[in-house]
Design a protein that fits this description.
Layout: H1 4-26, H2 31-37, H3 42-62, H4 64-69, H5 72-92, H6 96-124, H7 130-155, H8 162-168, H9 171-180, H10 188-193, H11 197-207, H12 212-229, H13 242-257, H14 260-273, H15 278-306, H16 308-332, H17 337-340, H18 342-368, H19 375-426, H20 436-443
Length: about 450
């Protein structure tokens, strides 16, 4: 990375992704103790654990509003506050209702960060490195999940209420995130869009002095064209934005109907369905996390070289193959290959293909395809679609796995990836190497 400013700003903002991953995964080590502390019924327990996911959906749906009104940087500062208050409150409270409120606040932070962090990074990154910079967000999500599992392991047994330490330790990265954000400038495209042209120009000079004035002219010209086209304000669902809206919604839906969250959330259950013991199932689940981390890191090295579309084509073929073989194994009820580890091995390969394609590309692609005036709304639409679908898949997977069996469930995921392949082949444009303003000329109806 030639520009150390952009790298530092992107690294700081991507800490929102680290907290996103940490907050999502940390509850796994505390959930049993939480059920015992407040003597929760199965329904109450399920609601308590899922309340953060509900907050995430709300944070994603409404996360574009503060990003537009307050600015990307100011919104990220408030997200850091949400993470801090959520972690501290959940760790210290003695009230079940208050605990759920604090976990809901953490979910709001997760949802809002999935809108604002990729948005900010895409707006400050040069075209030639934008994929690597924005995919740093996804890399940090995966890293946060791994660190949460490690932290839970290390804090197990530190006291009778070790679960409070598991949840409370998040205040440390949240405080670091909050403090570092004061060394990050506002997005130049947001500043120029609000008439603060000279402030935006100064930030663009920090990014690329030789290109700054040309970038300002390009942004102003594009914004003026947007204003001329829009009547009655910038509605995301205006005719000219149909293309980006369709791409964002379909991309987010395909991300989840791949079965990724069902596999991550219920990996031990899936492995036990194949006859593995509980210990082996849990160990195999940890292996999925390591593979996810490794191939997300690998994808960052190729996303600007190969392009988003090529990674998605590679991933689609790999996901179809692995999901098809898992479905076939369940239909035959033959899991004997690889010493009884056939399904875990296939799902390791599945996770590798997913991390290399959908996992790395989704936040990059959605952050690139919308014009400046509606980029925050578009990012919110893509992110909220992702989270609503994640909730639907996570809530329905145990039912369908029991009623339809593993074969039919994984065959459904496989069929959805065939449709994804057709989507990538026929509809998905390549976005690598082009400025956000150049992409707008290609993707928006004139």
């Amino acid at each position: 990375m030639k520009n150390s400013n952009v790298f530092f700003w992107s690294l700081v903002v991507a800490l929102g992704g680290f907290l996103f991953g940490f907050d999502t995964a940390v509850i796994s080590g505390a959930e049993k103790a939480i059920q015992q502390v407040w003597r929760l019924s199965p329904v109450e327990h399920g609601f308590t654990i899922s309340i953060a996911l509900i907050g995430t959906v709300f944070g994603a749906v409404f996360g574009g509003i503060p990003s537009d009104k307050l600015g990307r940087r100011q919104t990220l500062i408030w997200i850091a506050v949400l993470y801090f208050v959520s972690a501290l409150g959940a760790a210290l409270t003695s009230s079940w209702v208050a605990f759920m409120v604090f976990r809901f606040l953490g979910g709001l932070g997760v949802g809002a960060s999935s809108v604002t962090a990729p948005l900010y990074i895409s707006e400050v990154s040069p075209p030639e490195s934008r994929g690597r910079m924005v995919s740093m967000f996804q890399f940090n999500i995966v890293l946060g999940i791994l660190v949460a599992y490690l932290s839970n392991y290390l804090l197990t047994g530190v006291g009778e209420q070790d679960w409070r330490w598991m949840l409370g330790v998040q205040v440390l990265p949240a405080a670091v995130f909050f403090l570092l954000l004061f060394r990050v400038p506002e997005s130049p495209r947001w500043l120029i869009g609000r008439g603060r042209v000279e402030e935006g120009r100064r930030v663009l000079h920090l990014i690329n002095p030789a290109q700054a004035d040309q970038d300002v002219t390009s942004i102003l010209t594009t914004n003026a064209a947007d204003e001329a086209r829009s009547t009655g304000g910038h509605s995301l669902f205006a005719r000219q934005y149909r293309g980006p809206v369709l791409l964002a919604v379909l991309f987010a839906v395909f991300n989840q109907v791949s079965g990724i969250n069902a596999i991550i959330y219920f990996a031990p259950r899936i492995f036990e369905m194949t006859g593995l013991g509980k210990g082996s199932a849990l160990l195999s689940s940890a292996g999925l996390g390591l593979v996810n981390f490794a191939f997300t890191l690998l994808a960052r090295q190729f996303i600007d070289r190969f392009g988003r579309r090529k990674l998605m084509l590679i991933g689609s073929y790999g996901l179809i193959g692995t999901l098809g073989l898992v479905a076939w194994a369940f239909y035959r009820q033959d899991f004997s290959a690889f010493g009884g580890m056939l399904v875990p091995v296939l799902l390791f390969v599945y996770i590798a293909f997913f991390a290399f394609s959908q996992g790395a590309v989704i936040w990059v692609f959605i952050s690139e395809i919308f014009p400046n005036p509606v980029r925050a709304k578009g990012q919110a639409l893509g992110s909220s679609t992702h989270w609503v679908m994640a909730a639907i898949i996570a809530f329905t997977f145990p039912y369908f796995a029991e009623k339809l069996g593993g074969g039919n469930t994984f065959a459904f995921f496989c069929a959805m990836m065939v449709l994804q392949l057709l989507f990538v082949w026929r509809l998905m444009p390549e976005t690598k190497g082009a400025s956000l303003e150049q992409l707008e000329k290609t993707l928006v109806l004139h």
